[in-house]
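ok new one. same drill as before - structure tokens go in, u give me an amino acid for every spot. 281 of them this time. try not to just spam alanines like last time pls lmao
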């Protein structure tokens, strides 16, 4: 058979990348599929996490510690969160991006909380917001969700309340605290929250909460019975050297590796070993 003069072109169309949605997270809980979450504060890191398959990226007020160098999250402003959320959005194609509502952006009234959440959605481009507290913020959560703003709750250790509690101890150790957290979880779910972060509470309590409500639970220091897990990315990559709680597994030691690389760069510059002829024009 005579060979055709022209090869047949084959067009391969890559499947479109689908953004993770709150509905997808709900489906994952029903199917028993674990939800992967990490924090990010800039486009570069967000792109890495997004490409690696992280389901939810939280632009956390932990940026106050990680980026700004504060001892607590209290100084972080709404404008800070808007700025960093814009950057993270630019670095993602798949992950659901959740913006933290910082201290005093939602405590005054449900109406003010609604307006500030609207800014995070409209100005920053967030796909959802996160808010700390239980029954006391249920009205604000209802106001937001009724207007189409997805809300993630946060119970247990709530860092914005550090000045009230005085320590970062485990929450939910007494029967009274356990019941309060369980009641708060029900209140958030009924108010329309699509997920709830459970931070630094006993494994058994996290399991009880996860089984009691229909919305996904995201654990941090709350055991493996939660529907998903979240960590601050600088902690799990070993970039943080002065913060090592037992719930953080360090998957690398980037602090040491980066320190060594920068030290080598310093030596090369001082020894006139960089740039070489090949690295010059």
């Amino acid at each position: 058979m005579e060979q055709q003069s022209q090869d047949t072109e084959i067009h391969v169309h890559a499947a479109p990348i689908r953004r993770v949605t709150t509905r997808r997270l709900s489906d994952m809980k029903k199917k028993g599929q674990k939800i992967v979450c990490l924090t990010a504060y800039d486009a570069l890191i967000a792109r890495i996490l997004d490409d690696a398959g992280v389901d939810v990226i939280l632009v956390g007020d932990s940026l106050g510690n990680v980026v700004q160098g504060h001892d607590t999250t209290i100084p972080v402003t709404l404008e800070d969160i808007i700025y960093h959320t814009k950057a993270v959005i630019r670095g993602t194609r798949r992950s659901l991006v959740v913006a933290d509502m910082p201290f005093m952006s939602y405590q005054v009234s449900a109406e003010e909380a609604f307006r500030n959440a609207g800014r995070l959605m409209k100005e920053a481009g967030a796909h959802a917001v996160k808010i700390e507290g239980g029954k006391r913020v249920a009205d604000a959560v209802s106001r937001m969700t009724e207007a189409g703003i997805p809300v993630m709750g946060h119970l247990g250790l709530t860092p914005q309340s550090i000045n009230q509690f005085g320590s970062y101890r485990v929450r939910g150790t007494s029967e009274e605290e356990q019941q309060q957290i369980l009641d708060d979880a029900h209140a958030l779910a009924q108010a329309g929250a699509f997920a709830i972060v459970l931070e630094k509470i006993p494994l058994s309590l996290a399991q009880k909460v996860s089984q009691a409500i229909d919305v996904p639970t995201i654990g941090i220091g709350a055991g493996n019975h939660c529907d998903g897990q979240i960590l601050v990315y600088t902690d799990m990559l070993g970039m943080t050297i002065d913060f090592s709680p037992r719930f953080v597994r360090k998957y690398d030691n980037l602090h040491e590796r980066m320190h060594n690389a920068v030290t080598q760069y310093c030596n090369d510059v001082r020894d006139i070993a960089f740039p070489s002829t090949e690295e010059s024009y």
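The beta strands are 35-39, 56-59, 96-100, 128-130, 151-156, 195-199, 217-220, 228-231. and btw Confidence is low (pLDDT under 50) at residues 1-7.
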